[in-house]
Write a structure and sequence with these properties.
There is one protein chain. The chain has 2 domains: 92 residues, 434 Repressor (Amino-terminal Domain) (Orthogonal Bundle); 36 residues, no CATH class. Helices cover 79% and strands 0% of the residues. The protein contains 7 helices and no strands. Helix 2 packs across helix 3. The chain is rod-shaped. This is Helix-turn-helix domain-containing protein.
Length: 142
């Protein structure tokens, strides 16, 4: 419904897809996707689109609201959209946090392994020097 309304209103105003895209600061392909119902604009862009076409958001969305609560209904729809976007953003942030924690753990484990295995065994070093020291002491006594 939105795509058909957008196309009809755009043509009634005499705008090409390119002209409308320029006014909204988007690319022409975005307008095409909206008209084909392949995607929808975000809340802010939807409001700018309605203002550019000189219609209400509810008319653009295809809803015929006849009572006086049009502003509250539109606000409610926008509120739902914003809530869905907030949930999506929280999920995305959670996933990135988990990825960061896993990467940090891997780096720390690698550092620990590198340090642990690169330290020479001090006992081995002392044992290899003992015969030399014993030989030197015997040479001095003779």
């Amino acid at each position: 419904m939105f795509g058909e309304n957008l196309k009809t209103l755009r043509k009634q105003k005499g705008f090409s897809q390119e002209e409308l895209a320029t006014r909204l600061h988007v690319v022409r392909q975005t307008i095409s996707k909206w008209e084909k119902n392949l995607s929808v604009p975000d809340a802010d862009t939807l409001i700018r689109l309605a203002e550019t076409l000189e219609v209400s958001v509810s008319e653009l969305l295809g809803a015929k609201i006849e009572n006086e609560n049009t502003a509250s209904d539109v606000a409610e729809q926008l509120s739902r959209i914003n809530e869905q976007l907030a949930i999506k953003n929280r999920r995305s942030r959670r996933i990135w946090k988990i990825v960061a924690i896993i990467l940090a753990a891997i780096v720390l484990i690698n550092i620990f392994i590198a340090v642990f295995f690169s330290v020479p065994n001090l006992n081995e070093g002392n044992q290899s020097n003992q015969p030399e020291i014993t030989d030197q002491i015997q040479n001095i006594e003779e």
